[in-house]
Backbone:
């Protein structure tokens, strides 16, 4: 089974291009969601007026939906820009346009769901000793739990963080993918 947001992206890009055309501007394609040197917390461009801020908020919502439809490659960037939904700057809106330019060039991304059981090896993950933090931990299993039936279910979780990337607050952004 596969999920694609291609049609949704194409319609959204059409809407964004129409919006920009009213300002005599174009949407340019981009090869990455945001420039590597873009730091949204240091953006000192003017604040958006109420109508523009409302437009910014609606675009964040649309981008979040694209993530739900499988475009995980914009997750961290949209999460960063979501921090400015209350008081976005012009530069934050320009960053949204950059993400749309990236999506315009990468609208074909598809997320494939594969039910193959993955055999992870212990060597794939470094072992940690958590007994200092959790000295007496044990897994509680109900005494009356039913016997498992059918094939086992495997849940994989992948987590990454930007580790204090914010230049002002030193906050991190965390990304989690559960499959």
Residues:
């Amino acid at each position: 089974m596969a999920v694609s947001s291609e049609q949704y992206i194409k319609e959204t890009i059409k809407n964004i291009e129409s919006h920009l055309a009213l300002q005599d501007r174009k949407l340019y394609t981009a090869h990455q969601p945001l420039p590597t040197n873009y730091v949204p917390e240091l953006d000192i461009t003017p604040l958006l007026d109420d109508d523009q801020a409302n437009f910014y908020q609606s675009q964040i919502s649309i981008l979040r939906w694209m993530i739900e439809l499988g475009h995980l490659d914009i997750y961290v960037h949209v999460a960063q820009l979501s921090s400015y939904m209350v008081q976005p700057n012009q530069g934050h809106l320009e960053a949204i346009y950059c993400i749309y330019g990236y999506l315009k060039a990468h609208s074909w991304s598809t997320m494939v769901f594969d039910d193959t059981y993955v055999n992870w090896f212990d060597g794939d993950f470094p072992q940690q000793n958590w007994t200092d933090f959790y000295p007496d931990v044990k897994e509680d299993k109900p005494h009356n739990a039913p016997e498992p039936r059918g094939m086992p279910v495997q849940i994989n979780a992948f987590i990454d963080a930007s580790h204090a990337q914010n230049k002002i607050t030193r906050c991190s952004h965390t990304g989690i993918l559960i499959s």
User: Anything to note?
Assistant: Helices lie at 6-21, 50-68, 75-82, 90-105. Residues 2-112 form one domain.
